[in-house]
Write a structure and sequence with these properties.
5-stranded mixed β-sheet; disordered N terminus; mainly beta; Maltoporin, Chain A; 48 strands
Length: 891
């Protein structure tokens, strides 16, 4: 299968022609005012966010430009962590993925328009680390964003597809400013774990050619190298198999040479061992370009047109080095062994190999989102419309080489009372190349491309009644194409390292300072591109064929969505209280197709094309009511049925089958597959909040919410027939759902009641408690596993002081333990509690110029991951503090 060519050449022309012919216009709520970009007061930015929340008929939280531009956030994901109920996952020192109320099945919009990751819906970019480091929200720089709205309960008029919530990235409009504006920022950064300096800058130009026509251009660029130091396990903790204490591979560690049971407490569940240990250093250089442009034209008081575009480009170069060793499920490999009370292998000695590894990786990614829209308003009727186009693409190249010892050596490991695994090797000169051989060489490539085209038309008719203020209706069509392709060169080779002298060096990883247990070791490290070599596979000394297309990992999907809605806006009184809100119904029809390949029962190298189709309908009712119980006290109640379409990766139609001829007699044939016939996630939700706006720019609120997940997607094995054989195939399937219940508390205030100079203090604080129930059960503890990505307790706290020309802000974020995924053994993989503390200061030394100084990750917080139980550390990573100084100006 070849990569689908996503045609883009005529997209802008088609949109322009359609707009001139039909006069449709883009439906956007509350276009952002340009002044929000250049206000000098952090208090003003907070006040605008409170106003958005108070005036919205929905459950919405907003962050305006002051929060984004002046807090030390480098991308959209990091800015979103300031919102109550929003949690982020970090990788390589940056925020990468977002959960809203514990759910990752969310919708990202730019100016109300759908945009998806290059890897498709639910994707997180392409990356050999599998951490989502290069996903959509991580790719978009925060400087190009004007305002972020997070809607937690959708109305009928909102674009469908969010199970947790919708993130709308809003850009500025040039006619919102009174005068022409020129603004800039230049920032230098340095990290205490990486000496190389970093920088970023931005420039905004806004010009009004007349009172009814204006243009805006906002450009940002950054060049940043991230150092990630970690002790890490690729495979994590796995259950010990019968080979540990039976047959020829049994251990002889018991009294009199008897075997020690792999199930020490006899509960029927085996103990777990760490499959591999990797001491790793990553230097990840990220160059990001962001461009946001807008044209705005108001030919009459009742007519407005605009065109805006957002473009982001990232170029990533990553060097990764790791020294590793493998533990074993074979009991005979061990000469000593210790289990913890949780039946986790925590210390011992075994005979195994030692490996030096080097990877070079590049990732080029672009994102484009453009739209042409406008609005016409009559005496009672308002018509808006939208034609939009977005495209995301990433292309990654991986070159990897491994040097392994030719023999096994005694490796002693200790996991107790240390931050990272402590291990040492006896009887091995790790700098002698004659003792090492090259065993693996990868020259791989990945490409992911997604494209979305959409059109919508909305109409609102104003009413003058005692109950309804308007009737609204609209239609929307969207087409989304996703193409995933992979090319592989994976060789199992056997070449002595000393026979290829330009392909290795002596390296010592001097990392993880401050972490107990780590010991630097000098070792043979492969060198890529040594001498005349341009491919890792060339260490074989023979001609190799790199990057052969991998059909089973390559697929294409096409999706067409039709939606229509009817909604009534409510504006009335009840028992003397003003009541606003809306009630409506949205109908959605989805038509999905997928193309890929499968292997056959006779051969793993014979590929047959596969094509599947799926159609389904959803009716999504919603209602929201806001009652002003008394002056400045709002009671907000909402209920809705929501849906989110399956992740693109789960819809891969590829199937990998065991060749029948290669199976042992009596063995059950197995296979793995995606599932292009998945139904969407579906849920019902109820929200209730009480909000007290006790003075301008201040807020105290308490919110309760519940989500009943009717369906969820899980991995399950079942017997299926292929080529007249029965296979036990594991694939994603629709399973029973679960429940999510939560509490959100928000407080925001300027302490202007204090005597001077203390009246410059203020606080923003929010806390959320989120609990869940699922059908997943831990095989080790027997306890119910939570929804992946959900932390029970979450805290955001910002303390600030702003007086005259000076300002200081301290921003703290903390989240509880959360499950990241379910491992091969069926147990959960968890991230430990995480925290981030950042400090920023501002000095406005002239009316036009200011200096900002920032320290991010002030506590040098670690990132820790564990498998199932607390003493099973899978990852311990440090990224260091980042110090920055910025000059900002506005003219």
């Amino acid at each position: 299968m070849s990569v689908r060519v996503l045609k883009t050449g005529t997209s802008v022309a088609v949109m322009a022609a359609a707009m001139m012919a039909g006069g449709s216009a883009l439906a956007q709520d509350a276009p952002a005012a340009l002044e929000e970009i250049v206000v000098t007061s952090y208090r003003q930015g907070l006040a605008k966010g409170v106003d958005v929340k108070r005036n919205s008929p929905q459950f919405v939280d907003a962050i305006v430009a002051e929060d984004i531009g002046k807090l030390p956030d480098v991308n959209v994901a990091e800015s979103l962590q300031r919102v109550s109920g929003v949690q982020i996952k970090r990788s390589l020192g940056e925020g990468t993925q977002v959960s809203i109320r514990g759910l990752t099945q969310n919708l990202t919009l730019i100016n109300g328009r759908d945009i998806i990751d290059a890897a498709g819906r639910g994707g997180s970019g392409i990356d050999t680390l599998g951490t989502g480091s290069y996903g959509l929200l991580a790719q978009l720089p925060s400087e190009i964003i004007q305002r972020l709205d997070v809607t937690k309960l959708a109305s009928a008029s909102d674009v469908e597809g969010a199970l947790g919530g919708t993130v709308n990235i809003i850009s500025a409009k040039p006619l919102s400013a009174k005068d022409d504006v020129t603004a800039f920022s230049v920032e230098g950064m340095v990290n205490d774990r990486k000496s190389r300096g970093n920088y970023r800058g931005s420039l905004l130009l806004s010009h009004k050619f007349s009172d009814d026509f204006g243009a805006l251009l906002n450009v940002s660029y950054s060049d940043r190298t991230i150092r990630d130091e970690s002790a890490f396990s690729f495979s994590g903790y796995l259950p010990l198999t019968a080979a540990f204490d039976s047959g020829a591979t049994a251990n002889r560690l018991g009294t009199g040479g008897t075997a020690i049971s792999r199930d020490p407490n006899g509960d029927g569940t085996p103990g777990y061992y760490l499959a591999d240990i990797r001491d790793t250093q990553i230097d990840d250089n990220r160059k990001r370009l962001g461009v946001n442009g807008s044209l705005q034209w108001r030919p009459t008081d009742s007519t407005e047109f605009w065109f805006d575009t957002l473009y982001s480009k990232q170029d990533i170069t990553r060097d990764r080095y790791w020294l590793s060793t493998n533990l074993s499920t074979s009991g005979s490999a061990y000469t000593s062994l210790t289990f913890s009370p949780t039946e986790t292998v925590i210390a011992g000695t075994l005979n195994t190999v030692v490996q030096g590894n080097t990877e070079y990786y590049t990732n080029d990614g672009t994102t484009l989102s453009s739209g042409l829209g406008g609005r016409w308003s009559g005496e009672s009727l308002e018509v808006t419309g939208d034609l939009s186009y977005s495209r995301s693409k990433q292309y990654g190249l991986q070159t990897f080489l491994r040097a392994s010892t030719k023999s096994n050596y005694p490796v002693t490991f200790e996991f107790r009372d240390v931050d990272v695994p402590q291990w040492s090797v006896a009887g091995l000169n790790m700098t002698d190349p004659s003792l090492f051989r090259f065993t693996n060489a990868f020259d791989n490539a990945d490409q992911a491309v997604s494209e979305n085209k959409a059109a919508r038309l909305d109409a609102s008719y104003s009413l003058d009644t005692s109950f309804l203020s308007a009737l609204k209706t609209g239609l929307r069509f969207s087409k989304t194409d996703v193409a995933i392709d992979k090319w592989q060169t994976q060789l199992g080779i056997n070449v002595s390292a000393d026979t290829v002298p330009d392909s290795f060096e002596i390296k010592t990883l001097d990392i993880l300072k401050g972490a107990s247990g780590y010991t630097p070791l000098a070792y043979i490290s492969p060198v890529l591109f040594g001498g005349s070599k341009t491919l890792a596979c060339q260490v074989t000394g023979t001609t190799c064929t790199p990057r052969v297309h991998a059909p089973l990992s390559s697929f294409e999907t096409a999706e067409k969505d039709w939606a229509g809605y009817a909604q009534a806006d409510i504006d009335t009184e009840f028992l003397g209280m003003p009541v606003r809100g809306n009630a409506g119904m949205r109908y959605v029809h989805t038509d999905f197709t997928a193309e890929g390949f499968r292997t056959t029962a006779g051969s793993a190298s014979t590929f047959l094309p596969t094509t599947y189709g799926k159609k389904y309908d959803d009716f999504l009712p919603s209602v929201t009511l806001n009652a002003e119980l008394m002056e400045d006290v709002v009671l907000r109640l909402g209920a809705a049925k929501v849906m989110a379409r399956p992740n693109s990766a789960d819809q891969n139609p590829g199937v990998t089958l065991d060749p029948i001829a290669s199976l042992a007699v009596g063995a059950i044939p197995t296979g793995t597959a995606g599932n292009p016939q998945l139904d969407p996630f579906r849920a019902k939700q109820v929200d209730l909040s009480l909000e007290y706006y006790f003075k301008p720019a201040s807020l105290l609120s308490l919110g309760l919410f519940r989500k009943d997940l009717a369906t969820f997607i899980v991995s399950k094995g079942a017997f299926e027939t292929f080529d007249n054989y029965q296979y036990l195939v594991r694939r994603p399937v629709n399973g029973t759902g679960g429940d999510i219940n939560g509490i959100e508390v928000n407080f925001q205030d300027n302490f202007d009641f204090l005597p001077a100079p203390f009246d410059g203090f203020g606080m923003v604080a929010n806390y959320s408690y989120i609990d869940s129930s699922t059908p997943f059960i831990s095989p080790r503890t027997g306890e119910q596993l939570p929804i992946p990505g959900l932390s029970k307790n979450n805290v955001n706290l910002i303390l600030f002081y702003e007086k005259g020309d000076y300002g200081v802000r301290l921003a703290y974020n903390w989240r509880d333990t959360f499950m990241d995924s379910i491992a091969a053994g069926g147990d959960g993989v968890f991230f430990d509690t995480t925290q981030d503390l950042s400090l920023s200061t501002r000095w406005q030394f002239t009316p036009e110029l200011s200096v900002d100084m920032q320290i991010s990750n002030l506590l040098d917080s670690r990132v820790r991951q564990f498998g199932g139980v607390e003493d099973a550390t899978k990852l311990y990573a440090l990224n260091g503090r980042t110090y920055s100084v910025a000059l900002r100006g506005k003219f």
